[in-house]
Design brief:
The protein has 9 helices and 17 strands. By secondary structure, the chain is an alpha+beta fold.
Amino acid sequence: MLAFLAGCESLPRGAAFQGEVLNVALDAEEQGVEAPFQVFPITRVTLPALAAWPQAADLDGRWPGRSSDPATVLIAPGDRLDVRIWDSSANSLLLPVGARSADLQTLTVSAAGRIDLPYVGEVRVQGMSPERARAVIEERLSEAVPGGQVQVAHTPGRGNQVSLVGGVSAPGTYPMSDQSFTVLGLLSDGGGVDSGLRNPQVRLMRGGEIYRTSVQRLFDTPSADATLRPGDRVIVAEDDRYFLSLGAAGAEAQHNFPRAEVTALDAMAIVGGVDDNRADPKGILILREYPASAVRSDGRGPTHARVIFVMDLTSADGLFSAGRFHIQSGDLVYVTESPVTGVRNVISLIGASVGLAGAVGLE
């Protein structure tokens, strides 16, 4: 019986003790050698340092935002111009006898940004507003049609369009109505965001860059309603970010982000808290792996690619700090086992053993 009780430390458990997880780093520190990971306690004192650390690439920090471009559209290559010329003179070069106006065939702006006009030749219109292009065309035609007046109708081509891909009622390619055309304006033209999407996210593909934010942020923050540029592609999809929970947590599972930001306290609520009979609330660990490029020695980043953040939910400071610590996609929330659980198991085994011995003695 004594030999059996001596081996109780290795009794099956659902999670590791905090010391078992962290001792490797602590022992390495004592021995003066490099630890395989960094241990970072989350407190009121340490939280400000995290503001300088690199953020996850899928957060809002790089979202382009809104610009103050004028509410007009600029002509680009591929756009089409319908030009009508009004002339009251009796011997007009462009108008048939008796006619008061003439419609030129639809003119497509060339790759060089020009259109070809009769009796005038090439006229550069790229980068002009339709009103400015009308004035330039009218001026250039004045030699052939003195006193003539020009009307210009502008139809945006591919050089003045943006694409809306998925997540809306009517995906497709949409012309930019003006330079102040925004993401929410495009989503509105597309029939609105699908109501069945969980925490819908907007991805903006511009050149070789991808920007991302939540639809909710666009609703809540007017300055975040980014101004679009010709050729932009906008994709609306469900939030694919997630975090994991293991150990003595209320649930061991993969959890999707229910909203744009999830704090450590939010995460604890999402996983159902901790197991009251097993968990050590002083040993809530969040394991995160950073890219090698984020590792720094000046305090503006982690000292190791692998970091274990430690939280104590038995103190007011720990609780408040956990409410300000943001979970990133791929984080592991690990709830360690309470040492009291092992003691309780040993006591139960002793009681069971004594009871068994008494029963044998009676026989």
